[in-house]
Amino acid sequence: MPNHDAPSPIPPSVALRRATAADLPAIAVVDGRSFGEHYSDGQLEDIGVLFDPDRFLVAEDRGEIVGVTGSYPFDVTLPGGASLPAEGVTWVSVAVTHRRRGILRALLAEQHRGFAADGIAVSLLTASEGSIYGRFGYGIATEHREVEITRRRAAFRSDVPDPRGVRQVDTAELRRLAPEIHARWAAQTPGALSRADRWWDVHLADREWNRGGATALFHLVHPDGYLSYRIDRATRTCRIWEMATATDDAYIALWRTVLALDLVETVSAKSLAAAEPLQFLLADPRQLRTVGQWDGVWARVLDVPAALSARRYATEVDVVLDVRDPFLDRGGRFRLRGGPEGAECAPAEAGAPVVGIEMVALGSLLFGGAHAGSLARAGLLRVDDPAVLRRLTAAFRGERTPEHGTEF
Ligand SMILES: CC(C)(COP(=O)(O)OP(=O)(O)OC[C@H]1O[C@@H](n2cnc3c(N)ncnc32)[C@H](O)[C@@H]1OP(=O)(O)O)[C@@H](O)C(=O)NCCC(=O)NCCS
């Protein structure tokens, strides 16, 4: 990985500043041009609900906004159930007329130094391109699958119970019931993002432009779970938009209900966890067809001791992590002692086997999604003793694959 001791300066006519509320339309123009979109007034109104100018930085060239980065505040769940405040980086764009002159690097450096100064231990983002964010210390932390099921062929194993208890509700009732269920789901799911009220409002606004030609949302609710979907009548497809369950009964009951929708040929879902239980519930597991696999959230650790002592470990681990962070210089040597009941992590030069690790790899390990052995084989983690690597791999993995839930 390149080392940037002296990053190239941005052009002299470009200055960075914090955004103001009045900047939103200009920010939307830069972002829309970068992503090939013209935002309508309605879209801007929704975006405005989530826009907090204090969390946005802009790059200005002679009075014109040419670059932007922003963030949204979340709490994110760690393995073991604790949660940490995290900033979700968003709205990252630089005008095509100003690219590859270091503006993104300058914006991210200032933004991330601000996060660290505010005591934020972890930042997150979803990436438009996979090659951008490794250099800034971000590693893939959650992954999800896009799946399709031919409904008529998807029978459950004969011994799978039918817990029932599902009701169909309208959006107003879902809005009332879902936040509490979602919070219970998030508490037991590593990588899950909390969802504030204003996110629920935008999430359930269900605008026409967000429906991809399908119907408005339908909702199924169980006391411990919910599932929202649309119907694409032209292709007889039920598109699952969101599902959150806090118990296995709710999970089975909701899948049973959605797979009983007459007149639907195909049930599709875009963001199933990598190790979803559904395929093991089916008499023929092959009926759950994976048609895509995507990285979800990328994580970057800003405060190594705070992040690593807040999570729990599947088995006992005692190592000195030698973390390399060329972007922000927040690495160094930290002794991590942890297990299922607790963990501590503090600066220390020695005392346990030393593991060399890139910041990007630490981000991938944070929620238990990545395999330390794979990272070692890829050269992002260095350890001399294979027994230490075995212990590290076992300790960082969790019994649940991480999921982030909320797109931002
Ligand atoms: C991605 C984007 C913000 C980069 O802005 P930029 O000002 O040109 O980036 P910088 O000049 O600061 O480059 C920073 C580093 O990232 C690299 N980089 C930037 N964009 C990249 C890309 N699309 N792919 C791979 N590397 C990229 C640069 O080579 C540079 O590397 P180095 O500093 O290690 O040499 C800009 O190209 C853009 O707006 N793209 C379209 C929108 C988008 O994809 N945004 C990201 C949303 S997650």
UniProtKB/TrEMBL annotation:
The molecular function terms in GO held by this entry are:
aminoglycoside N-acetyltransferase activity
User: Does the keyword Acyltransferase feature in the UniProt annotation?
Assistant: yes
Q: Which Pfam families match?
A: Acetyltransf_17, Acetyltransf_9, SCP2_2
Q: What superkingdom does the record give?
A: Bacteria
Q: List the CDD domains.
A: NAT_SF
Every N-acetyltransferase domain range: 14-163
**Residues that span the membrane, as ranges:** none
Keywords from the UniProt entry: Acyltransferase, Transferase
Q: Which residues form the active site?
A: Y133 (proton donor), F408 (proton acceptor)
GO BP terms: aminoglycoside antibiotic catabolic process
Q: Which residues participate in acetyl-CoA binding?
A: V92, S93, V94, R100, R101, G102, I103, L104, R105, S128, E129
Give the multimer and partner information: Homohexamer; trimer of dimers.
Protein family according to the UniProt entry: Belongs to the acetyltransferase Eis family.
Protein name (database record): Putative acetyltransferase
